[in-house]
Amino acid sequence: MKENSIISPDHRIRVHDRTFRPYIRKDEIEEMVREIALGINRDFAGEELTVLVILKGAMVFASDLIRQLTIPITVEFTKASSYGNAMKSSGTLSIEGLLTEVTDRNVMIIEDIVDTGTTIRELIKHLSGLHPKSITVAALLSKPSMHTESQTTVDYVGREIAPDFVVGYGMDYAGQGRQLDAVWVASEETIA
Ligand code: PRP
User: Is residue 150 one of the residues assigned to a domain?
Assistant: First the structure.
């Protein structure tokens, strides 16, 4: 079989035409997820929570996070897409499978990354009109310098990062790289 592993011998990852270098290790991610879960379990003690997983990127983070939640939860999914195949958020959003049954429920949006903030803002706008008990956001990563509105609030965040393009742990470059168990950042060079 032809060798086509995305992990190259020089400790870089190759995804399509780009190389990526290590950025956040697996054990660091585990610690970030643990801290977020601790905060949620503490803040929602005695409550029930509906976690709304934003596909596709948040699937890996969400599957690790919910297994550390000790309060009663239900899990819902919505698909939102703003990047397309590009390395930059397009600013326009397509949403499928919007959640409608949220009246009097504590809803928590689960995101892998908040970039411009468009996705969470649009989702919050939609959910607010359905009269939930509360709306919160948990994201593994956030890029504060890219938020296009200053009141973009991420209630539980693993790490705030620079405006670099990252893949892995659910996050993709043009559809690939989601299976990586750590987070990698784009290098300058492209592959000829
Ligand atoms: C990514 C990410 C967030 C969104 C963040 O999704 O998973 O949902 O972009 O960007 P924003 O803050 O600028 O809105 P993407 O569009 O790449 O879709 P995917 O989750 O299916 O990969």
Answer: yes
